[in-house]
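Researcher: Before we compare anything, I want clean individual predictions. No alignment, no superposition, just each chain on its own. First chain goes here; please echo the sequence and then give the structure tokens.
Model: Echoing the first chain and its structure:
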Amino acid sequence: MTELSQNYRSHAQTRLIWALCIASMVIYINLYTVQGMLPSIAEHFDVSGAQATLVLSVTSFTLAFSLLFYAVLSDRIGRLAPIVVSLWLLAASNILLIFAQTFDDLLWVRLLQGILLAAVPAISMAYFKEQLAPSFMLKAAAVYIMANSMGGIAGRIFGGLMAQNLSWQSSMGLIFLVTLMGVALVTYLLPRKEIKPPVVKQKVSLMHKVKQDIDGFMFHLSDSQMRLAYAIGGLAFMMMVNQFSFIQLHIMAEPYGLSRFNATLIFLCYSSGTFASYLSAKWIMRYGSMPLFRVALCLMVAGTLLTLVDTLTAIVVGFLISACGFFLTHSCCNSFVAIRATSHRAKATSLYLCCYYLGASLGGPYLMLFWHEAEWNGVVVGSMSLLTLLLVAIWRLGIHQQQVIDVSKAS
């Protein structure tokens, strides 16, 4: 009987891993497909290519703040319901995209989708931690991170392929069908029962619960090292994800003249970041986060400057180098936040992701100003400004870390 029970639980855990990995791919395909369609969106809705980048920015903005909401909600009502409901609503929202008549209509729907997209990234790791045995946890984290990356790459390439061959309505109809099939599969795979963590039952008023949540968020925001980690992740993503938007416009223009689909192949450069993420845990354990932060910054600076060389090869190599540096930064930030958060861990992670996606939403309008002034050369100047701020944040975090070491040695 015990062996049957163990087999059942192992099967349920495997299903949960696959369900959340597929859900993650659905989320990132929906988030980033439009980034591969920016030229097509600009043409269909009669806006500039730079304005079209707002389609990603507005979604990242509502996604960022919704992460905090789902972190609290899932603590209150459980992990399963918010994930399932948000995914089905996401599928339904794609129908609205089919009938979007104006660019404003499109932006409003993407604002709504940002709210729905936040549930899976906000809840998944906490769901894994509660439901999985320790032996499954490492496997789940590795496969989940890979699914994130694959979903992002697939969404962008898929968007470019549709922009090359399909109309806007047909493209959104196809996205609706892909999302619908993915959501149905996730719903089927998710275990129907949750293993509830033990809690001490107390009669607590709603206002007291709200105060506890606010105190949890403020606990981390009052930590100067946490604030610097949040800033590092936000600044890095602010630059990186939006560079990928504007480089498409650059390589579609002369002297490169790439087609819409060929231009989206630049997103394959994210694969170097996937490789860096895979190795980051080993590197962090061996060298520590601070040395890797500095190496990652150097990679992002070198990669960004290399794109100024007027050859397609230099641009591709530059983005491969930058993506490696960015994902290394992201992995170090994740590790730093997870280790430093001794309490309110879910809130610490959601705050980091909030800053991360908030950076993405602000980076589009920010780099657009530089694009209008000097196109890609201007984007590089704007990126170097962000990297300068990143340098300051990493330097200040290093000072804090050294002070902690000095105090521990003195005691």
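Researcher: Okay. Second chain, same rules.
Model: Second chain and its structure:
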Amino acid sequence: MPALSSPQMREDGVEQATLARSRGAEEPGLSEEDLRLLAEIASGVTADVAARKLELSARTLRRRLRSICDRLEVNTPIEAVVWAARRQLI
């Protein structure tokens, strides 16, 4: 679990707490299949359509999405898409 670091001062003078991750923690690796799945979700299609395009069952797609979210420590597939997009993986 990330630890809360000392509060930081923003330009407008408001203190803001920041999360500090342990330095030894590596970024969770995503496979090419995981990235393809996230890219499909990012394109705006429904999970059922993404599953058909990736030749998966809807249940398998949902299970894989949950696994990706767990590895990235995010709550929703959209957060996983944002995580990957910010790192320019998709």
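Researcher: What stands out in the second chain?
Model: The radius of gyration is 16 Å. Additionally, The first helix runs from residue 32 to 42.
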